[in-house]
Amino acid sequence: xxxxxxxxxxxxxxxxxxxxxxxxxxxxxxEGRKLGKSQISxxxxxxxIPRPDTxxxxxxxxxxxxxxxxxxxxxxxxPSATQDAPTAxxxxxxxxxxxxxxxxLPRNAQxxxxxxxxxxPSEPAATPETRPPKGTAMRELRKSSKLDNVLYDVRGPVVDxxxxxxxxxxxxxxxxxxxxxxxxxxxxxEMVLDMSRQLADCEGYSDSHGLFSARKAIMQYxxxxxxxxxxxxxxxxxxGVSELINMCMQALCDNGDEVLIPSPDYPLWxxxxxxxxxxPVHYTCDEQADxxxxxxxxxxxxxxxxxxxxxxxxxxPTGALYPKEVLQEIVEVAREHGLMIFSDEIYDxxxxxxxxxxxxxxxxxxxxxxxxxxxxxxHMIAGWRIGWMVLSGNKRIAKSxxxxxxxxxxxxxCSNVPAQSVVQTALWGNQSVKDYxxxxxxxxxxxxYVYDALNSIDGISVVKPKAAFYxxxxxxxxxxxxxxxxxxxxxxxxxxxxxxxxxTGFNWKEPDHFRVVFLPRIEVLSEAMEKLEDFxxxxxx
Length: 541
Known about the structure:
Shape: globular
Number of helices: 22
Helix content: 25-40%
Distance between the termini: 30 Å
Number of strands: 15
């Protein structure tokens, strides 16, 4: 309830002060303060409230008091703990008696008093069980400051609004997340049967690195892909790739260490670097060059604090597939500066147009690389949570780092054992994904439909994706006067019941892109494209 009160009052104060999100961000930047658009969106959606220093900044900038803006705020100094010291309640009462009522109220930019907080009938009343002991202050439990700049807008404020609408009975057409199951994709029968037959043997922990059978199959697959110096000890299974990315960043980063990450990116990478105390440094992927990484931009952003570079290939959110020549240039930068390479290859089996995926680790046996993959996307079993990472190349230089990985791996005991039990079947059994990505296959045809439909909409353009099941369209911001892509996504959701993810949610710097998932069948995609086209006929921010 406190979060929603703060959200409502922040919105009211911004309106009365005639300020938009961009105004707050600009003022914060002028003061050398970190405040992002996604953070403000989270505040306005009621998802979170700011820490005291940010609350103080917002109140000061919007000409209101901290106490009015966030009634539950603990900001301010506490009275001394002596018997004669007045309580906060007594001090407030005395102040109220001495000051005229008009002066006691917080004021907006025009100097008009803002309304007092009214009792909310939906708030549960305190009971003897929930009321703190007499004379004891109730301490608010706040999230860690380590999460202040951690964002994951793939499931952020726009999705929160979609969930609220669904709870009210509204049907929302979702093009926001790469989850195959809701769109009719299913695991092959052989995998389901093999798991069911092995369940009795999967009730205990496995080795912290994973089952022997799973790691053996992963090792053989990696060898076929050309990864050098791969061993059973260098393979770790995880509850999806996400868990392993977080583990790798925790083991790598000291405070201030830099990691090069593509922009746009899959935002978990930026979030995990930040959470680990590192500094994500984004290099540009060039839309005019099929979304390939800009090598000159990468070179310009390497500093003495840079430890590693991340590539996402095939790419989420753009659907780009990097050719060998581009990968070789990245290797040269890494070799020149002694960088570790993290390669996210979860979509390596979802490649179209007769192209072939190349693992960057196969090009640099002298460097230390970690390659990530799994079954969530290629075998359409995202909910089974099975991924892996493979250490390859020059492991000698990473001995200490590998010890850190082993420690963290042991701490979480092991990954999902039933899902590990089908890795061998998945990698060496029937590869049903091949039927999806060739002409006539669902993913292939849906990709083609969305590509043509988006490019036919006035004000929209998109580069044709070569892999995965995403595209990253560009929107003409001048035509539609778009300055806030979160607001664009919210407006589209509320007016057309269509859910997409704004481009800034993927750490893209401008509000001129959004991601579309083309997993739904063509008839559903057709409805979505019609909604988008109709919306853009009249939309102007």
